[in-house]
Amino acid sequence: MAERDEDRFLDDIAEAEAEVEASMADDGPEEQDEVETLRAERDALQDKFMRALADAENARKRAAKDRTEAENYGGSKLARDMLPVYDNMKRAVESVTDEQREVAGPMIEGIELTMRELIKVFEKHGIRVIDPQVGDRFDPQQHEAMFEAPLPGTKQGDIIQVSAQGFMLYDRILRPAQVGVSSFQS
Predict the structure, then answer these.
(1) Where is the composition biased (Basic and acidic residues) (predicted)?
(2) pLDDT, tens digit, 9 for 90 and up, residues 40-75
């Protein structure tokens, strides 16, 4: 829409300029000075108009970017606060023995279903798990080294233990994965 306004404005200027050129053929030096003054004024106004159009377009783009960021990252505090809930449910499910599963099977199954639903909600809102494995390379962009220890049979910088999974919110780290890293040098 702004391009159409700009094109119409430039067409109007070209028409006016053609009319002035045609009428100037018969004019004297005073009228030509006045025309030059008007042209300078026109050029200044045209420059202001073009700058105003550019500013309006930049403001529109900035507002669209801000709106997208607010939609994607506005709930990051709530998401970060939900991570301990996920951690506790995961620990609860992992700590269940076969004997406990026999006695309280339906309750444990309910906890597992609730945890799966929480993961689905996370995925729906752009939250994904960072799940490093023992033997993976340490990546400071996604992992937080909780300790460093020499472990034979590993290379320096290999993950030797995973303490907690990490989480990403779209392309941003919500929480880095907490890992132990090998400092063994052969």
Answers:
(1) 1-11
(2) 999 999 999 999 999 999 999 999 999 998 888 888
The helix/strand/coil state of 116 is helix
Rounded to the nearest 10°, the torsion over CA 52, 53, 58, 61 is 140
Q: Which amino acid is at 104?
A: A
Beta carbons of 179 and 132 less than 8 angstroms apart: yes
DSSP 158: B
Distance CA 49, CA 26 (A): 32
The predicted model scores a pTM of: 0.67
Measured CA to CA in angstroms, residue 21 lies from 9, 15, 110, 119, 182 at distances of 18, 10, 85, 72, 82
User: Which residue is it, tokens 């729906």?
Assistant: 124
CA distance linking residue 133 with residue 114, whole number of Å:
24
Strand arrangement of the beta sheet that strand 177-182 belongs to:
143-149, 177-182, 159-164
Amino acid (1-letter code) at residue 40: A
**Which value, to the nearest 10 degrees, does the dihedral of the CA atoms of residues 172, 177, 183, 185 take?**
-70
Residues 6 or more apart whose Cβ sits within 8 Å of residue 118: 82, 85, 86, 89
